[in-house]
Amino acid sequence: MLPVKIIVGLGNPGREYAETRHNVGFMVLDLLAAHFGAEWKVDKARKAELAAGPGVLLVKPQTYMNSSGESVGPLMRYYKWEPEQVFVIYDDISFPVGALRLRAGGSAGGHNGMKSLIAHLGTEKFPRLRVGISAPGCKQMVSHVLGKFAPDERPLLQEALTRAAAATLMTLTQGFDAAANQFNVKKEKKKKEKPAPAENAEQSADTQAPEAASSASASEA
């Protein structure tokens, strides 16, 4: 995989959206800019706020979420970078608050900002970091993603933002695979019970009571 050159955080511009669930991408980029000591500058021509890190460009599209690709696509082509050098950070309702998931590519999964990026980059093959914001439950989707985090969610959010920034920095310094191995939570695989060999089963049947045989099989599985 080619080195990342553009880090994009998805969100909506304006103070009214600053602390909403849909803006976690912007929140992570603010942490990265602070880490690099970089200042945000408005680039009206490119419809974005830009900040320069060491060998990487931080981008907060100012097009509103659903048109994010209108900013990122032209930027990528201007610098003659490839889609796989564009690293995108955005919110995902599929995961609880605090959860992270890095992926090397894939569909938009119903996320309108990602739909726009895929359309303007011309491919689904670009790395991304999804930050969990929890499912809407009984709330309407729009009111959920444009709503703010509950007080009891804020500690989880702050931890997630810090970890997301760390995962992004590791991607820059050690590569995407190293970051994915470090920050993606592994799901435990269920062990499949192996049937006992035929001769052992016959011996068990001859020498053990049914209850004892069941216990032995369970302990060996």
How would you describe this protein?
Helix content is 40%, strand content 16%. The chain is α/β, with parallel strands linked by helices. It has a seven-stranded mixed beta sheet with strand order 2-3-4-1-5-7-6, with helices on both faces. Strand 3 (48-53) and strand 4 (56-61) form a beta hairpin. Helix 2 (69-78) packs parallel to helix 3 and helix 5 (154-174) packs antiparallel against helix 6 (176-183). The chain is globular, with a radius of gyration of 23 Å. It starts with 5 loop residues before the first strand and ends with a helix. Residues 198-221 have low confidence and may be disordered.
Number of domains: 1
CATH 2nd-level architecture: 3-Layer(aba) Sandwich
Average pLDDT, to the nearest integer? 88
For the record, the CATH class is: Alpha Beta
Specify Rg, calculated over alpha carbons.
23 Å
- According to CATH, the homologous superfamily is Peptidyl-tRNA hydrolase
Fold-level CATH name: Rossmann fold
Secondary-structure blueprint:
Blueprint: E1 6-9, H1 24-36, E2 41-43, E3 48-53, E4 56-61, H2 69-78, E5 86-92, E6 100-103, H3 112-121, E7 128-132, H4 141-145, H5 154-174, H6 176-183, H7 198-207, H8 210-220
Parallel strand pairs: 1-4, 1-5, 5-7
Antiparallel strand pairs: 2-3, 3-4, 6-7
Helix pairs in contact: 1-5, 2-3, 5-6
Keywords:
40% helix; Rossmann fold; alpha/beta; 8 helices; seven-stranded mixed sheet; 221 residues; globular; 7 strands; disordered C terminus
